[in-house]
Amino acid sequence: MTGVMALEEGGRVDFTRLRQERRRALFDVMDAAGLEVLALGRAANVRYAAGARQLWRTGAHPFAPLAVVIRATEKVHLLSSWDEGVPSEIGREDLYGLFWDPAHLIAGLREIPGLVQAHRVGTDSLTPFFGRVLRDLVPGIELVDAAPLLARARAHKSADEIAAIEVATSLAEAGLAAMEEALRPGITERALLGAYLEAVAGLGAPTPPSESVVFATPRQGPVRFRYLAGTRTIGQGELVVLAPGALYAGYEGGVARTRTAGGAPSPQARALADRCHRAIETLLGACRAGNVGADLYRAWESTGEPPPEIALANGVGIGTEPPLVGFGRGADARLNEGDVLSVQAWVSEEGTGGFLLRELVRIGEDDPELLTRSARGERNERSERWTP
Model-level pTM greater than 0.70? Predict the structure, then answer.
């Protein structure tokens, strides 16, 4: 049994309690908005409401209600042809089948107690076809955009959700350690990506949240942030961004560090590391309850760094969540106690390379709580500077 499976069987995360708390959060926002039904189609919202394991797959699919939450019965109904991975509180009678013919799907939805009697139905996504289907299914229905309500319900993280994020982050940091061990001049970015994938898969987390994991930063020409690993061979002394993530029980964790390939970092690389360290500390200092995204923008401006190429922060939970603070967006987004943010700083210098640091932080009552634990670098014995 892997470490992840052992935790899931009875470790630090109480999954029954976690699902109960998530459903209570959904019912609270439904009550506040006067919604009788939620028709959910986005995978993260379905996972939040139902707690069922979902198959990993790529590609897009047309909207269909994958989960239906009924406020009157406090039931969650799930589109599923089998009950493997479905929590015990969702019985077989709460499942409706997957059909090629939409008429059969509509018939299955019609059998859900409390759906056809509803007046206000919230949905997180919709196509014109299914908009008509729901209106035909529930005459006189009022459809409501429930995406902001769902974001509000998911924003505050319970103790069990924090524990799941911490486990995911520990898995990501194991992937970081594997890449650090493999990093050397002559290795390719794809080989480092493979070292990460092998490490997290061996710990029971074979599905990566992203392949935006590793890239070497060029020293010649404009230094640009890059999202995907390539076939590029890493040279002696280059700064290499290592940014692994991992999933646990649907929750995402991640970290980013920058390391030097072979030998000691140059004085220029140390100076770049100092700039990035100061920038991330300044951003983390602005992550306080009651602040807004504009406070993060002001914190970045106070460092004297150029306008950021990447987002300063985004919410983290079941994947990426609101708020997004970056690219001119999110200035009004409020930071609340219990939110979890991924905060990052990226600085670059032509002739030296680029440097990225990313931390996961929980907004606390006073100081933010750091959820990432990997060392950002090593202190230079002769100074207080951070080295890659």
Answer: yes
